[in-house]
Amino acid sequence: MEYSWILLSATFIVLVTFLIYENRKRKKSDNQLSINETFIINNKAENNKVLSIRLSIKNDPITLKKSITIFKTYSITLNKKGIFEKHMNDTLSYSVANLYEPGYFDNDQNIQGFTFYFVSEYQIDDKRRYDEMKQDITLINMILKGNIIYDSNAENKENKELD
Description:
alpha+beta, Cell Division Protein Zipa, Chain: A, 2 domains, 6 strands, elongated, disordered C terminus
């Protein structure tokens, strides 16, 4: 029994010594791994654009409760982060944030506008998502009678093609 305690103590001392030695070795600068290259996982990531349409109702602001009621009609729900979301086929189609700072809704009593947006992923669904967002904001604007501002690249391209 005495030999097992001696053997166990010796093993413990060796392990602690080994860990201390390894820790010192890692602190040396010649053992550090440094990478100076820029890695790009998705080449299209830097080209992704935020497609957005803004709805300003500055002249006739509404409450969060009324916003929830209006958006529910179009299957747009408020998430836990305080931003409205519209889901299409179990994926996020687009989001709706507060037009003015801070961008999310927190028991607002004086909402002066909304920003409908999504990040373009250069997929076939982007056009459909944008068209759905544009249709929803047009129908919501018929209720709120605000001012729609198209500031996305997609809408600007459409307008140039029509000219």
